[in-house]
Structure prediction request, 310 residues.
Amino acid sequence: MFSKFSALATATVLASSAAAAPVNERDLIGKIFDFVLPYNFTSNLDVYGAPANDFNCKSAKNPVIMLHGMTANREVDLNMLQQDMNALGWCTYSMTYGAHSLVPFVGGLRSMRDSAKDIAEFIREVKQKTGTNKVDLVGHSEGGVMTVYVPMSQPGIADIVERTVALGPAIHGAKYFGFTDLWYFGGDATRNFVATVLKVLGCKACDDMATDGDIYKDFLAKAGSISPPNVKTTIIMSKSDALVAPETSRIEEAGVRNVFVQDHCAQDTTGHAGLMWDRNVWEIIKLELQEKYDQKVATCDYEHILPGSV
Prediction:
């Protein structure tokens, strides 16, 4: 059986080549996920394919920009959350960032500092084309890191972003199941060698988020003021997440909310990948974006859960 990450990677790669085969792309990806995911997991939503960016969409709520995780893209990660929120009257937008030109369907690999500039430009585009004053950000994994990093690092973005919701972000250095400890067996020399190898292999972002990576260092330099004071930041974590442990995600600053999925739904065992598809997480996101901080998820959904530490 595929792991959740294998499923995501397989779906993403096959999506790029499906056009050459005599099969509908979405049907193909759907069949892959039907094999991997629990029965009836996706319900009436399309597991592959994000809604179009409709800049004419009107809502009383802020436009919400979705940011995918590493190796994913706008078509597969938070796309089902987009579909769900659009159906409820939200206006959502997404982009693929951090992809190499030769493999444009695999995002989140390039330098995160460079990707932050691209995301900032997209935020400005959404603001300009929708005519809004403020936008909200929702991101998963690396995308969660970006919801915090972009307002912190990019000029003027903190004045545009009103709220951010980050799902399982590696704010304090990704450990990759402890593999990063091995990077230091020869001290700084081996750590620097690993950084070079990752860059050559095309995953500068893999190094950026790890301890002593560029993004880690940027956050460390801003310790105590990672979240701009005018941006309302929420970190959503799962106690079952072993890839990005909660202590790696938490931001202990005034105005930042650190929320466990289990604070709302005690029996929810979703892991890191499952955060993007968990209906309970979706409800928490909506509550946070509406600043309904005293409310809990009305009815916990234990059917559509990807259990486990990944």
Notes: Residues 1-42 have pLDDT under 50 and may be disordered.
